[in-house]
Design the sequence.
């Protein structure tokens, strides 16, 4: 069961992690919840950013770097929808689009 009053530990940005984040966003109704969701989205963004940096440093495929940059952009939009617009439902929609 999702507890919107809890900050969840983010280990990766897998489809399962994104699905759980969508559930938490939908369950979030209070300003405090929005702050917690922002923190979680920050961590997802950080993990993606690390992978982008690693790929660039190792000369990884440009197509994969571009894919992750687009992914990171969606995460940032979701973050802003929660934190700036106060609209966790719209943020959840952004994440659903990433999941296909």
Sequence:
């Amino acid at each position: 069961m999702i507890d919107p009053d809890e900050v969840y530990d983010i280990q990766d940005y897998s489809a399962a992690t994104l699905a759980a984040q969508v559930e938490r966003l939908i369950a979030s109704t209070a300003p405090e919840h929005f702050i917690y969701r922002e923190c979680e989205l920050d961590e997802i963004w950080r993990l993606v950013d690390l992978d982008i940096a690693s790929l660039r440093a190792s000369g990884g495929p440009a197509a994969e770097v571009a894919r992750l940059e687009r992914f990171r952009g969606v995460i940032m939009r979701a973050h802003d929808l929660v934190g700036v617009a106060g609209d966790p439902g719209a943020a959840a929609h952004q994440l659903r689009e990433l999941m296909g």
Summary: The chain has one domain: 15-99. Residues 31-58 form the longest helix (28 residues). The CA atoms of residues 32 and 61 lie 40 Å apart. The radius of gyration is 14 Å.
